[in-house]
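Dear colleague,

Following up on yesterday's call, I've attached the two folding results inline so they're easy to grep. Please treat them as preliminary; we haven't cross-checked anything against experimental data yet. The first protein's sequence and structure tokens come first.
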Amino acid sequence: MKAYDELYLSDIVDNQGEAFLAVRDEFSGIDEKWFIEKYMQSHVRAMLDIGNIKFANMPSRELIKWFIAEECNNEYKHGEEWGGFIPEWAGKIYAMYQWEHNVKSKDLIKMLPLSKIEEAFPALHQASWESAVDKIHGLVGA
């Protein structure tokens, strides 16, 4: 059983990928890995886990600004960029995986840490989202 109606899937997947990439422009010097881990464990991501319309339709830049303001009290950890387009890919993979396997995002980030995403990226970044998620699912042994 999928996590929510497929009607919202492409918006949530695309938005999350865009958000994970755009955060470096919106919050100069932010630690991108910190942001992704914090976001995946957040209330807003829990709402997206069930296809909440308010958050599913919120533009990515507005969503990350809302998240930093409301859930992080306008504070964030400074650090290095993760680099390139891997944050966007990670965002889309996490969103697609969450929907496909109906797992809570706060559990997914523990089950599939950023280090595993980084390992999978070179081999899978050109595969379709569905194929990449299937291969990653096999790797995590879920």
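Below is the second protein, in the same order (sequence, then structure):
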Amino acid sequence: MAVLRRPRIRRYGISEEDVADVLVLVAPFLPSVDVDVEVPIRDAEDVPVVAAALVGRADAIISGDRDLLDAPELRTWLLGRGIRVMTPAEALAFLAGGPG
């Protein structure tokens, strides 16, 4: 929930209670997923992000999280499964047709 306190997010007026209310509503419909990731993930809180990307067959993980961005072994492993790890700026450049 610390993300909600960041200035860029705080401007939207989303409270922790709002997030909790949404999670209570959607939690019964979320699948339980076990994914065998064959490389280390530095931050345990990133495991669900990687698992969701794998199970959801995502094209990319867009994040400013250094634990994901500064993990070459994980990034290579994900790329081998068709998932790029990009910063928001890299994703925007990619979508605009530039390098990325």
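For the second protein, one point worth flagging: The mean pLDDT is 88.

Best wishes,
A.L.
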